[in-house]
Specification:
The chain is 56% helix and 13% strand. By secondary structure, it is of the alpha/beta class.
């Protein structure tokens, strides 16, 4: 089995690349989705978060209010670190469990884990290969403005707060440039998939 990380900055077309890889037969998982499941009501992680931040980070129904929690940890790096110490090990454990389950039924599987902050967190080192998705910055700004209804200045501020695509590309085993039409991106994904198949 081959474990592959998929990452890229905001609004570069990562979701489209993920869907192409899924169509080709890869097992694709969203790390964000996994992070949500490990903090569901009744989980030890949610209990620890409430013990640290108080019940004000919960919604009326008892689920985690990610927006409220995000606003708190955005301001305080120390608390953000503590939150990561609660969530990250559990996300990694769940990823490992998923991979082991797949390995038992499909030993030649290619598992793709899609995570935006894989390089920043260092978790890319847990994977056999890393795919970095990127596009031209002017396109990225345009896509982000359209997707989140932002002004150009707001979109730029968001991009500048993150690691740049240029920087992320230094870590890549494979790159996919989504600046062109969907067909061109799909061809690149197919070429990368052929390379990955040789490694399983």
């Amino acid at each position: 089995m081959l474990k592959v990380g998929l990452t890229g900055s905001i609004s570069v077309g990562k979701s489209f690349v993920s869907s192409c890889l899924r169509d080709l037969g890869c097992h694709v998982f969203d790390a964000d989705q996994i992070a949500r499941t490990v903090v569901e009501p009744g989980t030890p992680a949610l209990a620890e978060i409430v013990a640290l931040f108080g019940t004000e980070v919960l919604t009326e129904t008892g689920t985690l209010d990610r927006k409220k929690l995000g606003a708190i940890v955005f301001e305080q790096a120390g608390l953000r670190q503590k939150l990561n110490e609660i969530v990250h090990p559990r996300v990694h454990a769940e990823q490992n469990r998923i991979c082991e389950e797949i390995a038992q039924t499909d030993p030649h599987a290619i598992v793709i884990m899609d995570a935006a902050l894989m390089i920043e967190s260092g978790s890319y080192k847990r994977f056999d290969k890393l795919i970095v998705v990127w596009c031209l910055k002017k396109l990225q700004i345009k896509r982000l403005m359209r997707r989140d209804h932002l002004t150009r200045a707001e979109a730029l501020a968001r991009l500048n707060a993150q690691m740049s695509s240029q920087e992320k590309r230094k870590y890549a085993d494979f790159e996919i440039n989504t600046s062109g039409p969907h067909t061109a991106t799909r061809h690149q994904v197919e070429a990368v998939y052929e390379e990955l198949k040789k490694l399983v």
